[in-house]
């Protein structure tokens, strides 16, 4: 049987290990020491140490971890939510397979989940590919299309990513790569995105309700949340719905109604109802104290 290791981190990696455990499948795991990678996406994998053999790294390049990683007993490494240029300067003896949560060559780069939700993309997918000198530009090994429904959020999309990734990893362990035919990416269709920052999550109620809804979805959990300020207090928004699609219903940002169904706010066109927000680290559902 082919031996496979998984390089993964963060929330997606944590959920992936949960899924692999549900399948009673325990490949070698490589992740970052939580003391090295401290972001809002970081997760502590020690919970899985009695189930998986886990190697912790304290640097994000292969060269700095070569002595540790050269001892890996594997034929293939599958990288899920892993540093894209980790192997940039080196090609180890094992095969490296990377994953991008988009239909490459579209949406190359970091932050593509948020980007697709903000753009209102409804047909996305997962791509497994070989590394190359350019980020996310290697030959495609396997792709699977995913539909993003109107009421989906990143958490729903990530759940689908994890399911597909787990199935792919198990198949690679059983059969290697012999059943996959690699295809080069079409560079004419390729484009890169700019990594999202906090400033990209500021809500402008002067925009139309649909655009605001997509922006809220884009930065919803597990990300840091779209936000605005009310009376000088930061309000993070994690769930909402378009109440009225278009038309004038009040000055942008005006609270039209605030009850057990949420706070309905006028937009440049249409209205949007906020149903889950965070204020001063306190989460509020439905009735919003604005």
TrEMBL record:
SUPFAM superfamilies the record matches: FMT C-terminal domain-like (SSF50486), Formyltransferase (SSF53328)
GO cellular component: cytosol
Catalytic activity, EC: 2.1.2.9
Catalytic activity: L-methionyl-tRNA(fMet) + (6R)-10-formyltetrahydrofolate = N-formyl-L-methionyl-tRNA(fMet) + (6S)-5,6,7,8-tetrahydrofolate + H(+)
Segments forming domain Formyl transferase N-terminal: 65-163
Sample GO molecular function, one term: methionyl-tRNA formyltransferase activity
Top-rank taxon: Bacteria
Span of domain Formyl transferase C-terminal: 199-281
Keyword terms of this UniProt record: Protein biosynthesis, Transferase
Similarity comment text for this entry: Belongs to the Fmt family.
PANTHER family in the cross-refs: METHIONYL-TRNA FORMYLTRANSFERASE, METHIONYL-TRNA FORMYLTRANSFERASE, MITOCHONDRIAL
Function: Attaches a formyl group to the free amino group of methionyl-tRNA(fMet). The formyl group appears to play a dual role in the initiator identity of N-formylmethionyl-tRNA by promoting its recognition by IF2 and preventing the misappropriation of this tRNA by the elongation apparatus.
Protein name: Methionyl-tRNA formyltransferase
Organism: Flexistipes sinusarabici
